[in-house]
Write a structure and sequence with these properties.
It is a single chain. This protein is of the alpha+beta class and 649 residues long. It has 23 helices and 22 strands. The longest helix is centred in the last third of the chain and has 37 residues. The protein is elongated and about 105 Å long.
């Protein structure tokens, strides 16, 4: 883990405490001052006893000040909260960082100088509260890796003869015989020795289908077993298995996570020097230091410190109403600036389930009749492709016929009697072994998956399946450039070339990368992010490193807690329309934030000019700044109101 994580956590904790202290102090002051009307008793701090008679009056005058008893909570805020913040701002100043928060620090000092303790405490609250809001709901590298670690089983079932013993997963050795129970997660990479089941490897490999596993099949750590137990031979220890490698890539991707420069920092870098320049010119031109103070009071950057966070929170609220969870608020400022969109395939642009796309029948047979026979038999099967066949028959409104003598053997397919004919649905491999004379009649192997239908031992049809493409994928992809100004759209998948290219042709993506491991995805996303700001959309565990490496990572659906942890935003409802809504919410948030910030700063500049020329006193300037703040906040709250439409495709 990077060494910086504990420091970041500590910093966040301090800012939380300062924000809470500020709220408590201001909350205590207001009723004491205006509710209980506590009188003002003068307190004097003097150093006269520590110095000689000549120096004592000078220091006594410098350190003496008066305050009401009601101001004690504000004093606590300024001392316990303001001083730590000012020390950090001083470090920023030494590094040449003249941002909006630095101007706020000067405002704190100025407010204390003017005995405007409430104003100074409010600025402390704005500084600490803004930092807390900025990091609200941000996950850290440790949370992603913790989720990865929790997903893996800590216990494995080791077989020794007829004895079954539970051992720690990290104690598995190469050559051990392990039992994987139904619905368990495979602890190591291995080879099936006994049993027949299916495994869900989609989040690891990008393959969209449940993969059949029989004796001799390879299994991957992290894959989810199906309904039957499997006995496997451990080919690797846990630390060298596929899932552990993904964790290593995840650590690497977090270490080099791209940084987003905040909108407030960009504007503050321009606004702070301008405000200081106006204040200095006003002081120098008039010779009156009060004008310098008046300019700084009205220059307090509340439109940046409050207006932008309020806009972000309002946009987060709107997104939540649309079933979009914003985990990193900073992305709302950057979404509209991204120019490269990178998509995973399975579960993102596809549904991650097989769809029957073609039935190639023998010349003398009718396609509808064949589908009727096959669907009638497949309704009794648990094979992953049976659902696609039944859906196609339902769509064609075909009746299902009675079936007798049903038999389904692992690796052999399913068979039964329908209207006196023996119907068998099997694989090309099984046909080659049992009916080699039929093999010559089969069409060439194509992309996707297939199954072979036989009637009374004679070739009847080949059924071809592909990962089902989302109905709105093509329209979504093709609107990205004209509507959201994306220059490049890429498809990056761990699936096979034939599957990836098929999808790319269906949706209109030209730049394609297939058979990509998590390491390769990570390297590709890093390279693209160096060229331009990127958005990566994915839903698998193998996408987690790429989600972290992109400028903005968007997790699609609720399939993986790990993907959600790695992402900046999570689309809870698996719909590309929701992704488009997120783009629009981000673009709209930036526009409203700029309106609040730039509009507020423009009014502040006008006020600074008036204060610099002596038309506004520091008190009047503070009142004017409050009015500007109210206008900026009211405009920022518009971001929570849903527009008539949030999608344009």
């Amino acid at each position: 883990m990077p060494n910086s994580s504990p420091v970041k956590s500590s910093t966040l904790s301090v800012e939380h405490w300062i924000a809470l202290l500020s709220l408590a102090g201001i909350g205590a002051y207001l009723p004491l001052r205006y509710g209980l009307a506590i009188g003002s008793q003068t307190y004097r701090l003097s150093l006269s006893a520590a110095f000689g008679p000549d120096a004592a009056p000078l220091f006594e005058q410098s350190f003496a000040f008066t305050f009401a008893l009601a101001q004690l909570p504000l004093l606590a805020v300024l001392v316990l909260g303001g001083l730590p913040l000012l020390s950090r701002l001083l470090v920023k100043l030494l590094h040449g960082d003249l941002g909006a928060d630095l101007l706020a620090g000067i405002s704190i000092v100025t407010a204390v100088w003017l005995d405007e303790w409430l104003a100074g405490s409010l600025v402390v609250l704005m500084l600490s509260g803004g930092a807390v809001l900025e990091t609200y709901a941000l996950r850290k590298a440790s949370s992603v890796l913790e989720a990865l670690a929790k997903r893996m089983p800590s216990i494995a079932h080791k077989k020794t003869g007829d004895t079954l013993t539970d051992i720690a997963a990290d104690k598995i050795r190469i050559g051990d015989t392990l039992l994987i129970l139904p619905h368990e997660i495979c602890p190591v990479d291995g080879t099936v020795l006994e049993g027949a089941s299916t495994m869900d490897e989609s989040y690891l490999t990008g393959e969209p289908y449940l993969m059949s596993k029989t004796a001799g099949s390879q299994v991957l750590s992290g894959a989810i077993n199906g309904n039957a137990a499997l006995t496997i031979h451990a080919d690797k220890v846990a630390a060298d298995s596929r899932y552990a490698k993904i964790m290593e890539v995840m650590r690497s991707s977090e270490r080099y996570r791209p940084k987003i420069r905040r909108l407030g920092d960009q504007l503050g870098a321009l606004y702070a020097p301008l405000a200081l320049a106006i204040a200095t010119v006003a002081w120098y031109g008039s010779g009156d230091v009060v004008r310098f103070l008046a300019v700084l009071v009205i220059a307090t950057p509340c439109p940046l410190l409050i207006g932008i966070p309020v806009t972000i929170i309002s946009s987060i609220s709107l997104a939540a109403q649309r079933e979009i969870i914003i985990k990193n608020p900073a992305i709302l400022e950057t979404l509209g600036l991204c120019r490269t969109a990178i998509f995973d395939k399975t579960g993102t642009l596809t549904y991650g389930r097989p769809s029957l796309i073609a039935i190639k029948t023998a010349a003398e047979l009718d396609e509808a009749k064949i589908l009727t026979l096959i669907a009638s038999l497949e309704r009794y099967s648990k094979h992953p492709l049976s659902g696609a066949i039944l859906k196609a028959a339902e769509k064609a409104a075909l009746p299902l016929l009675p079936v007798a003598e049903i038999a389904e053997l692992p690796g052999q397919g399913i068979s039964g009697l329908i209207a006196g004919k023996k119907i068998a649905i099997t694989s090309r491999h099984a046909v080659a072994e049992q009916l080699p004379e039929v093999l010559a009649r089969l069409p060439k192997v194509g992309g996707g998956l297939e199954c072979i239908a036989l009637i009374d031992g004679q070739y009847a049809a080949t059924l071809q399946f592909r990962d089902e493409v989302r109905a709105d994928s093509s329209s979504f992809i093709n609107h990205l450039q004209p509507s959201h100004l994306f220059d490049r759209v890429m498809l990056v998948s761990g699936d096979r070339e034939s599957e990836v290219r098929y999808l790319a042709e269906q949706v209109g993506i030209e730049q394609v990368h297939f058979s990509q491991s998590p390491e390769q995805k990570l390297a590709l996303v890093r390279a693209e992010t160096r060229k331009a700001k990127t958005v990566f959309l994915g839903d698998g565990i193998n996408d987690a490193p790429a989600l972290t490496a992109a400028t903005i990572g968007i997790a699609f659906g609720q399939n993986s807690d790990i993907t959600g942890e790695a992402a900046d935003a999570v689309i809870m409802d698996s719909s590309l329309q929701k992704v488009d809504e997120l783009f629009h919410i981000g673009e709209r948030m930036r526009k409203i934030a700029l309106q609040s910030a730039i509009g507020g700063m423009a009014l502040s500049v006008v006020g600074m000019g008036a204060a610099g020329m002596g038309y506004l006193t520091p008190v009047a300037g503070a009142l004017a700044q409050e009015l500007i703040d109210v206008l900026a906040i009211l405009n920022a709250l518009r971001a929570a109101l849903p527009p008539k439409t949030l999608s344009d495709f």
